[in-house]
Design brief:
CATH topology of the largest domain: ABC transporter transmembrane region fold
Strand order of the largest sheet: 6-7-8-3-9-10
CATH class of the largest domain: Mainly Alpha
CATH superfamily of the largest domain: ABC transporter type 1, transmembrane domain
Structural class: alpha/beta
Number of domains: 2
Helix content: 55-70%
Shape: elongated
Number of helices: 21
Bound molecules: adenosine-5'-diphosphate
């Protein structure tokens, strides 16, 4: 048990240290901020230090010069206070927003460098919540919490100094409560950390359920899932609220407890002052000044305890941000580069199991594609066809066996060099919120000309539907291409592949969303491309792969049959059965 208790502070310290590294580049600004805050607290302390002379030297003696000087001084003093306030608050908020911006950027950059397996296991909602919500929590630590910590902290010190100057005996009584406050703060802060973590998780699951319902809106409508989704959301929404309330009650309780303890100290002070021997030594000004300072202390003390909440929230959020930043990016140990592959691909006894799964997705895969050949993958869904193509682009790495490109182990190639060799068209077409031309040229905007884009678009039959748009190729596609049909999106993806001019094509159900007519015209364009490129084709419609140099029939991760269309038909195995099945259904 002692271990786990010991570990927490060390981890927290590391988090704080790492957080401070974000602040360090802005140290000058931090100093300005601190000077501003100290100045602000000093002006306030100065005001309260004036009570005793005001009462004892001016009001009681009838010397009104003091009041006149005060009248002249008060506006400039407030002006000065305003300047200090601006310096302190502005600099710290600037610092906070800078830190948030850097963290957001780092998280975003991390997201786009993490391996696919990471994204397989994390919902988009929770990842978005980290960038949007968690970093904002960090800002509270960087900005607001530090502001209160330094400014109110200095004010507390100032007030204590004034009190001690006037009557150390009374101040000492008040100070005895210090350790008690400390104990409460430390108990409460542990609770804060727990609840903050729970709130962050709740926030993540809230965004996840929003994302699912919004993305799957059509399914929700079709299957009458509104009540189900609404109930599910209500549960999470309520859970989030409950966690927030836990935080609020911890906050309220801690504030009230501290105030009650402080009031006990105040009562003791008043009681002691009532002892005749003691009061004799106190002038009215000193007594008033000490008591007012004590009352004034309550507010900053209260704020200092809530600062802790903010700071703990911020540090919990920091820890969750750092946990992501510490994830290993996609491994790119390959050092060799390749300009343009000739296009020979070979799988040698490749085995692969997804993390967290027990049954392998690929078992002992061996095959070879010579430059310019077309290899077709056929099999039931879930038989491992997409996994095979994912391994080729190193989205995942084999557990055993080797994949060669032009006789070079693909692990030796840098990821950039490797992926440049492939053009991938898959079932799910990802389009970006940009113009059609930029979507076709995605990733190559700087190196291709407009006419090259138009040429690729022509071949992929994109031009016909783009010309109907008012702005042609400069038409903006809505987010994820919402205003395009599945077939149109697929044609854009094909144009993208044509333009990329990679030596190896991976077509994973590339024409599945096309109607028969556009499929025919694109099929001929693709066949044209395939002539000069090595192609790995995953196809359901067997008619599209009859001309393949080799057809691999897959079942449960294994290649169970291998050969040309004619050979496989002749051997009368699984392929022949599939073919007969499709042929009979197509001829109906
Ligand atoms: P196919 O493309 O032939 O339909 P896949 O290659 O997509 O088949 O899937 C092969 C097997 O691997 C299936 O059992 C599937 O459940 C599993 N699988 C696919 N993707 C993942 C993933 N990201 N994580 C875990 N298992 C997966």
């Amino acid at each position: 048990m002692s271990n786990s208790v010991d570990e927490v502070p060390i981890k927290d310290q590391a988090t704080i240290k790492r957080f401070l590294a974000y602040v360090w580049p802005h140290k000058l600004l931090t100093i300005v901020a601190i000077v501003g805050m100290i100045g602000y607290a000093a002006v306030d302390t100065f005001f309260f230090a004036q009570l005793q002379p005001l009462v004892d030297d001016s009001l009681q003696t009838g010397d009104y010069d003091y009041l006149r000087i005060a009248a002249y001084a008060i506006v400039p003093l407030f002006l000065l206070r305003g300047v200090f306030n601006f310096l302190g608050t502005y600099s710290l908020e600037y610092l906070g927003t800078k830190v948030v911006m850097r963290m957001r950027q780092e998280l975003f950059d991390k997201y786009i460098h993490l391996p696919i397996s990471f994204h397989d296991n994390h919902s988009t909602g929770s990842l978005m919540s980290k960038i949007l919500y968690d970093t904002e929590q960090v800002r509270n630590a960087a900005g607001r919490a530090l502001l209160t910590l330094v400014r109110e902290g200095m004010f507390v010190i100032g007030l204590l100094a004034v009190m001690f100057y006037h009557s150390w005996q009374l101040s000492l009584i008040f100070l005895l409560i210090g350790p008690l406050v400390g104990i409460i703060v430390s108990v409460v802060s542990k609770r804060f950390r727990q609840v903050s973590r729970a709130i962050q998780a709740a926030m993540g699951s809230l965004t996840t359920s929003i994302e699912q319902a919004v993305k799957g809106h059509k399914v929700v409508l079709m299957f009458d899932g509104q009540k189900l989704e609404s109930d599910r959301f209500e549960e999470k929404n309520n859970h989030n609220r409950q966690q927030t309330m836990k935080l609020v009650s911890a906050q309220i309780l801690s504030v009230s407890t501290i105030q009650v303890i402080a009031s006990i100290a105040l009562a003791v002070v008043l009681f002691v002052s009532s002892i005749p021997d003691f009061i004799k030594e106190l002038t009215p000004g000193v007594f008033l000044n000490v008591v007012v300072c004590m009352v004034m202390l309550l507010k900053p003390l209260k704020q200092l305890t809530t600062v802790n909440t903010e700071f703990q929230k911020g540090m919990t959020a920091c820890a969750s941000v750092f946990a992501i930043l510490d994830q290993d990016s996609e491994r790119d140990t390959g050092t060799k580069t390749m300009d343009r592959a000739i296009g020979k691909v070979r799988f040698d006894k490749v085995n692969f199991t997804y993390t967290g799964k027990t049954t392998p997705a690929l078992k002992d895969i061996c095959f070879e594609a010579l430059p310019g050949q077309t290899i077709a993958l056929v099999g039931r869904s879930g038989s491992g066809k997409s996994t095979l193509s994912s391994l080729l682009t190193r989205f995942y790495e084999p557990n055993a066996g080797t994949i060669y490109l032009d006789d070079m182990n693909i692990n030796e190639l840098s990821l950039r060099s490797l992926r440049r060799q492939f053009a991938l068209v898959s079932q799910q077409v990802q389009l970006f919120n940009d113009t059609i031309a930029n979507n076709i040229a995605y990733g190559k905007q700087d190196s291709v000309t407009r006419s090259q884009i138009l040429e690729a678009a022509d071949i992929a039959n994109v031009t016909s539907f783009v010309e109907m748009q008012e702005q042609g190729f400069d038409t903006l596609i809505g987010e994820n291409g919402l205003m395009l049909s599945g077939g149109q999106r697929q044609r854009i993806a094909i144009a993208r592949a044509i333009l990329s001019d990679a030596p190896i094509l991976i077509l994973d159900e590339a024409t599945s969303a096309l109607d028969t007519e556009s499929e025919k015209s694109i099929q001929s364009a693709l066949e044209q491309l395939q002539k000069t490129r090595t192609s790995i084709v995953v196809a359901h419609r067997l008619s599209t792969i009859e001309n393949a140099n080799c057809i691999l029939v897959m079942e449960q991760g294994e290649i169970v049959e291998k050969g040309t269309h004619a050979e496989l038909l002749k051997s009368n195995g699984i392929y022949a059965q599939l073919h007969a099945l499709q042929f009979s259904s197509e001829s109906k």
